[in-house]
C-alpha cells in the first residue's frame, strides 16, 4: 500500500505538469482546450508564463521521458491504467505541438498520432448502392440531392418550435439514461442558440456536473436530429461522459488529468464514438418512432409518413463514411476545397450551404472526423462483443465512460 501511495504521488506531480502544459498550449490555440475545471491557479500560472510553442515542445519532450521513467515498477493495476492513459494523451500533445509549429502529416499518420487509430479505407464506389436505394425511395424529377432536400424539408422543425422540441428530446434522453446510469445529484445543462459556427451543436462542459449545450441555427433542425443531438450532446453522450469522469476519477480519486480535455487527443475517439452510439442503447427503433410520432411531431406541428422517413434516413446513414473519405482526400491534397464541397453535394446529398460549412470544419479540424463514424462503429462493436444482453451492454458502456480507454484498447 505504501508503494502505491508513493507512486501515485509521483504520478500526481507529472499530472500537474501535463495539465499546465495543455493549458499553456490552449493559450496559443484556444480551441485546443475543450474543457477545464481543475485548480484555477494552474490556469493562471500557465497563462502568466507565456511560454512559446518551441519551449512548450521542449517541456513536452522532457515530460514524456519523465513519464516513461515512472512506468517501471508500478505496483497497482489502477496506477498502470492511469499511467497508460496519461502516456497516450501526452504523446498526442507532443505531436499536436509539432503540427502547430508547421509540421504536416498525412491524414492517416495524423489520426494515428492524435487519436490512436486510423479509419478503414473507403472509396466512392462503395456508396453507389446506398445512393441507388435512396433513388428508389425518393422517385421524382430532378437530381437526387434536390429530391432528398425537398423530402427532408417536410420534417423541418419550425424555428420557433426548436427550443421546445429540443428540450423535450433532452428530457426524454435524460429520463431513459437515468434508468441505467446513476447520475450525480444536481447535474444540469442549459441550452443556448448560436449562429456562424462550423458545427451543428456543441457541448461545453463546465465542471460541477454542468454543461452548456449550444445549437447552431445556421441550418434548420430536422425532426430526427432532435433526439440524435439530445443523446449526442447530452444523455448519454458528452454531458454524461464528462460528469462521470468528474465524479468517479477527479472527485473520488483526485486524478486531475481527467479535469482537462485536450480536443485533439485520444480521448476524443471515445467521446465522439460513445456519443454517436448512445442513441442505439437509449431507444429501439420502435420506441424512437413512437416518441417522435406521439410527442415531437405534434409539438412541432409536423405531419407525414414517419416510418418511411426513417427508412430514407437509415438508407442515408449508409453514406456516413463518405465524411471521412472526402476529408481525407482534402487534407492529403488530392482534391481542392471546391471539389470536396461538390462531392458532399453529389454523394452525401448536402445542400451547397451545408457542404461549404462542412468543408470549413474539415480544414479547421482535419483528421478529427474519424472519431464520429469510426468511433461509433468501434464503440458499438466493443460493447456488443462484451455484453450478453441490453442490461450488460449498459454496464459496459457506462464503464467505458467512467474510465476511458484509448482506441487501441477497444478495437479488436
Q: Nutshell version of this structure?
A:
The chain has 19 helices and seven strands. It has 412 residues and is mainly alpha-helical.
Summarize the topology:
Layout: H1 2-28, E1 33-36, H2 40-49, H3 53-71, H4 77-100, H5 107-115, H6 128-137, H7 144-152, E2 156-157, H8 162-178, E3 188-194, E4 201-207, E5 210-216, E6 221-222, H9 223-234, H10 238-253, E7 260-262, H11 267-282, H12 285-300, H13 306-317, H14 322-331, H15 337-346, H16 352-365, H17 370-386, H18 390-402, H19 407-410
Parallel strand pairs: 3-5
Antiparallel strand pairs: 1-7, 2-6, 4-5
Helix pairs in contact: 1-2, 1-3, 1-4, 3-4, 4-5, 6-13, 8-9, 8-12, 9-11, 11-17, 11-18, 14-15, 15-16, 17-18
Amino acid at each position: 500500500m505504501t508503494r502505491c501511495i508513493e507512486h501515485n504521488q509521483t504520478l500526481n506531480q507529472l499530472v500537474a505538469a501535463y495539465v499546465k502544459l495543455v493549458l499553456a498550449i490552449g493559450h496559443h490555440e484556444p480551441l485546443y482546450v475543450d474543457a477545464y475545471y481543475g485548480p484555477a491557479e494552474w490556469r493562471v500560472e500557465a497563462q502568466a508564463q507565456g511560454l512559446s510553442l518551441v519551449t512548450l515542445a521542449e517541456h513536452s519532450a522532457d515530460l514524456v521521458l519523465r513519464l516513461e521513467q515512472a512506468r517501471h515498477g508500478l505496483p497497482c493495476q489502477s496506477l498502470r491504467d492511469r499511467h497508460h492513459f496519461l502516456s497516450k494523451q501526452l504523446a498526442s500533445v507532443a505531436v499536436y505541438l509539432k503540427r502547430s509549429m508547421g509540421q504536416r502529416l498525412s491524414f492517416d499518420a495524423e489520426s494515428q498520432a492524435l487519436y490512436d487509430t486510423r479509419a478503414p479505407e473507403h472509396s466512392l464506389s462503395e456508396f453507389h448502392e446506398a445512393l441507388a436505394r435512396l433513388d428508389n425511395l425518393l422517385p421524382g424529377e430532378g437530381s437526387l440531392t434536390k429530391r432528398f432536400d425537398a423530402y427532408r424539408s417536410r420534417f423541418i422543425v419550425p424555428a420557433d418550435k426548436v427550443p421546445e422540441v429540443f428540450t423535450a428530446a433532452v428530457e426524454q434522453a435524460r429520463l431513459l439514461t437515468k434508468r441505467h446510469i446513476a447520475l450525480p445529484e444536481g447535474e444540469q445543462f442549459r441550452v443556448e442558440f448560436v449562429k456562424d459556427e462550423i458545427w451543428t451543436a456543441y457541448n461545453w462542459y463546465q465542471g460541477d456536473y454542468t454543461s452548456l449545450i449550444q445549437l447552431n441555427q445556421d441550418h434548420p433542425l430536422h425532426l430526427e436530429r432532435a433526439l440524435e443531438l439530445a443523446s449526442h450532446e447530452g444523455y448519454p453522450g458528452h454531458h454524461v461522459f464528462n460528469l462521470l469522469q468528474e465524479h468517479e476519477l477527479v472527485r473520488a480519486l483526485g486524478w486531475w488529468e481527467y479535469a482537462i480535455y485536450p480536443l485533439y487527443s485520444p480521448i476524443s475517439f471515445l467521446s465522439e464514438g460513445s456519443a454517436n452510439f448512445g442513441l442505439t442503447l437509449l431507444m429501439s427503433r420502435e420506441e424512437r418512432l413512437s416518441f417522435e410520432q406521439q410527442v415531437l411531431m405534434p409539438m412541432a406541428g409536423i405531419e407525414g409518413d414517419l416510418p418511411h422517413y426513417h427508412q430514407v434516413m437509415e438508407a442515408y446513414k449508409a453514406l456516413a463514411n463518405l465524411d471521412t473519405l472526402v476529408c481525407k482526400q482534402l487534407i492529403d491534397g488530392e482534391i481542392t476545397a471546391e471539389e470536396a464541397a461538390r462531392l458532399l453535394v453529389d454523394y452525401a446529398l448536402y445542400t451547397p450551404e451545408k457542404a461549404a460549412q462542412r468543408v470549413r470544419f474539415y480544414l479547421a479540424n482535419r483528421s478529427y472526423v474519424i472519431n464520429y463514424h469510426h468511433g461509433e462503429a468501434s464503440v458499438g462493436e466493443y460493447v456488443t462483443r462484451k455484453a450478453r444482453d441490453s442490461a450488460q451492454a449498459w454496464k459496459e458502456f457506462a464503464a467505458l465512460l467512467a474510465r476511458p480507454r484509448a482506441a487501441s484498447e477497444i478495437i479488436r
